[in-house]
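Async update (no meeting this week)

Hi team, since we skipped the sync, here's where things stand on the single-chain job. The sequence we agreed to prioritize is pasted below, unchanged from the tracker. I ran it this morning and attached the output directly underneath so nobody has to dig for it. Comments welcome in thread, and please keep replies under the output.
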Amino acid sequence: MRVRGALLREIGGPLEIVDAELDPPGDGELLVRVGAAGLCHSDLSVIDGSRPRVMPTMLGHEAAGEVVSTGPGVDAFSAGDHVVLCFVPACGTCAPCSIDRPALCEPGAAANTAGTLLGGSRRWRLDGEPVVHHHLGVSAFADHVVVSEASAVRVDPSLPSEIAALFGCAVLTGVGAVLNSACVVAGESVAVFGLGGVGLAAVLGARVAGAETIVAVDVVPEKLELALELGATHAIAGGEGAVEAVRSLTLGGAAKVIETAGSAAVLEQAYQATRRGGTTVSVGLPHPAQLLSIPAVSLVTEERTLKGSYLGSSVPRRDIPRYIELYREGRLPVDRLLTHTLALDEINEGFERLARGEGVRQAVLF
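Output:
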C-alpha cells in the first residue's frame, strides 16, 4: 500500500515527506493505522547525529493507532484493536526477557540497530526498492506502519490517540525511571534534572510514589513553572549553583536523582546532587563521544548507586495499562505534557521548536 511518511535520508535532515510503499505484515506482524505520533528528543538525536542510526530511515518511535490487519500467526491482536507502540520489541525468550527485563531484549536491540523489524525483515520500499529502514521497530511518522506484535500493547479505544501515544515513550520512560529504576518510596526526596516530556513525566512519577520533596531543575523558566503545577515542591534554574541549591533543599542531597537531559555534564551535576547512600539514575542519551567523570572512590565510601534506565526499566504490557489507569484516576495527568499538535507537513517546524527547548511534548496527528 502507499503510505505518506517522514523520511530521514541523512544525518542533519531535514525530514522529507514522501510517498513510500509498505509491504503487508508478515509472520507475527501487524499493520497499524497511526493516529498520533510524539516528537521526542531521541528522534532529534538521530537527526543531528548524536544517536547514529542506519539511513535512510522512516523516523519516529512514540505512537498510538488502530490495528488494520494482522499477519500469519498473530493470535493476541485483531483488526480494530487500539494499541500503543513501544520502541523495544521484546522477543520474550532471551536472557533479559526471561527475567522480566524486556527493555534489554537482545534480539530487539539487534533489530533496532539494523533498522529491521524483530523478525529481521524490512517492509518499507521507496521507488520499488527495499532501501528504507524502520526506526526502533516503529517508524511512527507515517500514516500506516507495519510492526512486530511484540511492539504493541492493547489499550482502551476511548483514550485519544494523542494522549495514548505519550505512554509509549515519555510516560513509560519517565515514570518508569522513578518507580522501576530508582524505586522511589513515600517520604523520599527526589530531584529531576531536565524537564522535557520524560523529565516532567518523572516529576509526575515522583508525586505518584509519594516523594516528600521533589526538586525540578531546568534552564527554561516555563518548564520550571509547569513542573511546580505538576507537583514539584521546588523549581531551580539549571547551570552553576544548581547542585548546591538541590543539596540545600534536600538536607545534603536528594535520595534519588533522575537525569533526563542527555548530557554528561548534567549527569555529573545530578551525581553531585545525590546524597550519601543515594541513587542517581541516568535516562538521557548523550552523544557516544561524551565521557563521565566522577570520583570513583565515592561509589564505595559513600555507598552510591549510579545506574542507567532504558525504557524506564519497564515491562510495557504490565506498566502501560497501570499508568493509563493512574491517568484515568487523575493521579497522572500526562495530558498536561502535550503542548502542541501538528500536521505531518509541519514536522520539521516541530523539531526546530524542540531543538530550541520550546514546549514539552508535540504530537503529529494523522
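Quick observations from my side:
Residues 2-168+333-365 form a domain with the Quinone Oxidoreductase; Chain A, domain 1 fold (CATH 3.90.180.10).
The mean pLDDT is 96.
Reply here if anything looks off.
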